[in-house]
């Protein structure tokens, strides 16, 4: 659907308007449920915020849906108007609240992984480090103690109540044993049936990578990793090409003496493609992190990302071709040699 209908910057804008609006509604439900207490009840010794509908009722699922919007909010912020930023600020605040109040250790790990990913990509690592240190210092003062304690169990490996961590370790051992016994996989969604027959236990893998490995074996695991790597590589290239095209257009604009409104519009479109590619790439990184603690192989996340990888690559191909056709110069030539930019 995405690859077929998101074919130009206008369609891309409208897609993300509706996308962010939908997740704002989900976030509003979370805020209301947290304030009134109607969606909060104790689980594993911690009051946890639950989702309002079956599709994301579990705290881990609810937190995952909201956390996955943060990369888009982050990358679209600079491009947004004043009123759009108000909406993004609300969506971001809701995402932070839902992630925190869910008590989801899975989501907490997702935050850490995305933060490390953004730090690795940052061009101003000194400033980024100061921001990280500031957040680490402030978090214990503003985050309720029960959620701080929940986060600490990631490292202590001791649940306040119940035996969730022990159960996950048991699943890990069972999944490894099944993977060894079935190197070519047990078939589509077959882990639970095979685990029940072998060990008398019925829970699924709670890990996307083990889900792939047990369901489709070594070959399926290689295909899955190759698929995700290909999508990430395509998005990374589209982000880079969008940034270079925007820089080339700015160089072209600086060489013009007349009306430049049309160039400004193209710059905004190139920046939109760049931001969308960066947002989807961040989305995948978060989903891969969440996949360490949830069996998400059959979810739509991967197809969402693949659709955008196709759509954005196609969009930037068209934009570069039009630029080169209009001015007779490659994007790189204008950026490297501003004197070659055609004057109006």
In short:
The protein is an all-alpha fold. 73% of the residues lie in helices and 2% in strands.
Describe the structure in your own words.
The chain has a two-stranded antiparallel ribbon. Helices cover 73% and strands 2% of the residues. By secondary structure, the protein is an all-alpha fold. The protein contains 14 helices and 2 strands. The mean pLDDT is 90. A hairpin with a 2-residue loop joins β1 and β2 (46-49).
Structural topology:
Layout: H1 2-5, H2 9-36, E1 40-43, E2 46-49, H3 59-67, H4 70-76, H5 82-101, H6 105-121, H7 125-142, H8 145-156, H9 164-181, H10 191-199, H11 208-254, H12 261-290, H13 301-327, H14 331-336
Antiparallel strand pairs: 1-2
Helix pairs in contact: 2-5, 3-5, 3-6, 4-12, 6-12, 9-11, 11-12, 11-13, 12-13
